[in-house]
Design brief:
The complex is a heterodimer of chains A (294) and B (352). Chain A is an all-alpha fold and 294 residues long. Helices cover 78% and strands 0% of the residues of chain A. The relative contact order of chain A is 0.13. In chain B, a hairpin with a 5-residue loop joins strand 17 and strand 18. The two termini of chain B are 40 Å apart. The chains are: A mainly alpha (294), B alpha+beta (352).
Chain lengths: 294, 352
Amino acid sequence: MNSTLTLETAGPLLPAAPRPARAESPWPRRALIAAALAFLTLFLFVPLAAVFHEALRKGYFAYLAALSDADALAAIKLSLIAAAVAVPANLVFGVAAAWAIARFEFRGKSLLITLIDLPFSVSPVIAGLIYVLLFGAQGWFGAWLAEHDIKILFALPGILLATLFVTFPFVARELIPLMQAQGGEEEQAARVLGAGGWQMFFRVTLPNIKWGLLYGVILCNARALGEFGAVSVVSGHIRGLTNTLPLHVEILYNEYNFAAAFACASLLALLALLTLALKSWVEWRASREAAVTA
Amino acid sequence: MNIQVRKLRKNFGQHKAVDDITLEFPAGELTALLGPSGCGKTTLLRIIAGLEQAEAGEVWLDGEEVSARDVRDRKVGFVFQHYALFRHMSVFENIAFGLRVKPRRERPAETAIRRKVYDLLELVQLEKFAAHLPAQLSGGQRQRVALARALAVEPKVLLLDEPFGALDAKVRKELRAWLRRLHDELHMTSLFVTHDQEEALDLADQVVLMNRGRVEQSGTPAELYAAPASPFVYSFLGSSALFEGRAGAAALEVGAHSLPLAHDLPAGTPAVACVRAHDLGLARPRERAGGLPATVRRVLNFGLVARVELDLAGSGKRVEVDLPRAECAELAPAPGETLLVEARAARAFALA
């Protein structure tokens, strides 16, 4: 038992060691695998299949019609805009925050790390409500915003803010441990050799973190497109205007328009599958590169 | 070109890493910064390079005060302890890096860069490895790439942080000899940090021995070895025994026993006597009076000299005595036997 334990804890660091001969019967292992498979089938594969089955229940024509509906297209467009703003913003702030945390010692560093994690620990609905409290008609800045005719809630800015809030940790969280593990010596070497700040960043820092960064961006993108709770609170559900794709699915479902709801849901499911494939590819590339450069 | 530091200070919290150090490193010489870990030698090196900021004091490179100058403008070559090679770049690109990041008007043409890199690869004997990634090289090869990369920008001084620290013993010796030859060829003012006294004495023209952020003694290896300025220098350079006691008449009183030795300390002063292992002698108690009784633990009679390890009576402190092999064979010390330890040459320091 002891030898198995060491093998597992030290796992990826050690070259594959020959497994110790097992005296135990193979049945507990098989039973556990079967239980895990049954669980996955029930809670993941069946629902996923059901989404596509329901989406195509009325045939391809109805499926395509549901997706090319003007409101559906508007929802897709809005979701894409939200992601197009959230992902680059996260990229910049995530790298900046990770760099500050991994490379420098300063007062309030642990507070900054906690703040970056905040969106993970706060319910998305609460995140949305914060913006309602701030920018709503009865909120702190509500009167001032109304006076100057600036619309944040029930409009694009609110949706962008909510999306930015919930996606904030993804890139930074991915990069901090990576940059801490790599250390800053290569960057110092670049400086001594005469590189300026940006030369150092683009020639040394970025190539070293690119896979971690891409991984963070993929997860961030998936969350930006799929976010429901926070966006739901601030959107106002105005069809064709402030509905993102997940909100559109909900509306269609509440109207008993199941085929159309599942058609839109299938888009999100496809996106999830695509994200999964991309994520595996990035992990595979990163581990292959690590094997060569480590 | 020469390097000077004046009244340098640097603290890490309560710890005084560099405590009021003033030094001059002569041009064209290879100087070792030697000391135990945590003595501030690496911090001093990094301050000279500009990788750390001193809290007070000046750094002069070639007659210019450079404290306010950024690391990239100091024109120093720095070799990191763990090499810090760019892991995603080939050996060629690693060496070319310093040339490629130069401002456009100073940047050499691609053909000039190629020529320069291949010259350096030849210098460090790695022509065949231009396309390799750092991870595909051995430790000694990486070290040489790091050196070539530092030399590519034609620095005015070369700073090396524990250059052989991460290598195994055999490679370390080879690389040490090679670095000495390289230095004799290039005559660049070079500073290297080490905690290995043998490495410092073997390789350097000048040795600066540091302890707790201060300079204990500096000079040529021969000067340091011949005239250590403090018990610390004795204990750090070469193999010596230190005996604590009180100064007596031409002896050091250690407990109830006395170790005969010449000194000019007033009688009764608390003192420490430093004796090199090869200046210690052994005798049977009935043959002589004077000397410190000790129990023989181990006898290693092979190699150039025989080594006898003993535990001092009373304190139980371990003492190593180097004897000529013939003398050892004649005395024939047996483990468990009690012998007298005597000093043929010693230096006594008053204890503060």
